[in-house]
Design a protein that fits this description.
Strand content: over 45%
Oligomer: single chain
Structural class: mainly beta
Radius of gyration: 23 Å
Helix content: under 10%
Shape: globular
Distance between the termini: 39 Å
Order of helices and strands: HEEEEEEHEEEEHEEHEEEEEEHE
Number of strands: 19
């Protein structure tokens, strides 16, 4: 039960966190705090401002002189420490457990002029989390380190160790709720980008943007990796009449590449897809379809078109996701929600697979409640309609019970878990913890 207990505590505490986005550097490709529903729970004591505002870290500026060269340096960071208790009832067993987590992110930027910038983040994590690589020293390590370069005042080049996001899917791309679920996580087809060294070339043309990317994991012992050792991706985004239409694809290292021989998990089926997004009456509406191309030589992709899309066996799977997001922050209290529905279609399912799997993920919240406007409530419900599994997860946050200290309490009810293996169908976790955080 210990293995399930640890993962349950970490997942259940997620809904209570004020903001999971502090880990992102300011120039990452991920959505900003303002665009994320977690912004409902940020700095609830600020009641004079009628809009959701981002937490802004204090930036410290230095100048470093190397000979005749002077480089400006900017430093900022975020520290968070959490400690709490949880009670778990799983089948007929009950248990209690303690919880502790410490994270610190130190960000730095050096930009001598508008053409080039070096950016990085040092991370400390106790205990290690999902972002920490196996065998890595999680006490202090380089989380991100990359440079941005502007060519000809139009072409943007980024290279180094960087976490990138392609796509608008928010809930199904959550690594904690869908750990190990490729159909969910690869709605961001670059979900593993920080594990690689990458090079990104971005070319804007009017309102449209064309992007190419190459990633290399390393480990072959070859200083000059071959093309088949690389993961390659491209996207073409077109914006017209307030609507964004994006076509993209990714090829993983090939099955016969040297790096796959040592790390077979790096090889996956090629992904192609398209995504559409539009805002109507302040509602963000978006949809995405991804196809994993089959590696069976008898399944030719051209048959999809010649059959007028009746024969889809050229795809190993087709994953379609639609979502809606809205936040009302004009008046207090703030209210917001995000809901997504996903359909997974497997044209030729195996013995333990189904043709169709339908599921949804939802999250809603309300903030700035109570006399001091320091109370926030969040609720998450993820449900697999086909498998009849899922979880409910409510949480309450009270801000600033002490300086820099919030109190959170919540519960998580899971149902339909490992029915064939364990014989139980439900699990209840109830817990509370304090979090101390600081921007610097």
């Amino acid at each position: 039960m210990a293995k399930h207990k640890k993962s349950t505590i970490l997942l259940f505490l997620t809904v209570l966190r004020v903001s999971s986005l502090f880990a992102q550097t300011a120039d990452s490709d991920e959505t900003s705090d303002f665009d994320d529903l977690d912004s409902l729970f940020s700095e609830a004591e600020d009641v004079s401002e009628p809009v959701v505002s981002e937490d802004v870290s204090v930036v410290t500026n230095y100048n470093v002189t190397l000979g005749n060269l002077t480089l400006p340096l900017e430093f900022s960071g975020k520290m968070r420490a959490e400690a709490g208790l949880a009670f778990i009832k799983e089948d007929s067993e009950s248990d209690a457990a303690g919880y502790f987590d410490f994270k610190n992110y130190l960000n730095f930027t050096s930009r001598p002029d508008k053409y080039i910038a070096l950016k990085g983040t040092l991370k400390t994590s106790l205990p290690a989390d999902d972002d920490d690589l196996d065998g890595q020293n999680n006490y202090l390590y380089i989380y991100e380190l990359y440079f941005d370069y502007l060519m000809l005042d139009r072409i943007y080049l980024t290279a180094g160790k960087k976490k990138s996001v392609w796509g608008n899917i928010r809930l199904f791309s959550d690594t904690e709720s869908y750990e190990g679920d490729d159909n969910a996580l690869y709605t961001n087809i670059l979900s593993d980008s920080r594990d690689h060294i990458s090079g990104i070339l971005k070319i804007p043309v009017g309102n449209h943007t064309f992007t190419g990317l190459a990633m290399y994991r390393g480990g072959t012992g070859n200083d000059s990796p071959k093309t088949k050792d690389l993961s390659l991706a491209a996207s073409a985004e077109f914006v017209f009449m307030g609507t964004s239409l994006n076509f993209f694809g990714r090829r993983f290292p090939t099955a016969d590449s040297e790096i796959v021989q040592t790390r077979p998990s790096l090889h996956k089926n090629t992904i192609v897809g398209a995504e559409l997004k539009r805002t109507i009456l302040s509602f963000d509406l978006y949809g995405q379809t991804l196809g994993r191309i089959s590696e069976n030589e008898d399944r030719e992709l051209k048959k999809v078109f010649t059959s007028k899309f009746d024969d889809l066996t050229a795809f190993k799977s087709i994953v379609s996701t639609v979502g809606c997001y809205r936040i009302w922050n004009e008046n207090i209290p703030y209210v917001g929600f995000n809901v997504e529905f996903q359909n997974i279609y497997i044209p030729e399912p195996g013995d333990d697979e189904k043709y169709f799997t339908n599921r949804f993920a939802s999250y809603c919240g309300i903030a700035k409640l109570g006399p001091n406007k320091d109370l926030s409530i969040g609720f998450q419900w993820n449900h697999n309609i086909t498998q009849k599994t899922g979880f409910f997860q409510p949480g309450i946050n009270v801000s600033k019970i002490l300086p820099h200290c919030d109190w959170r309490i919540g519960a998580k009810y899971e149902y339909g878990l490992n029915k064939d293996e364990k014989g139980y169908e439900k699990k209840l976790t109830v817990g509370t913890y304090l979090t101390i955080s600081m921007d610097y």
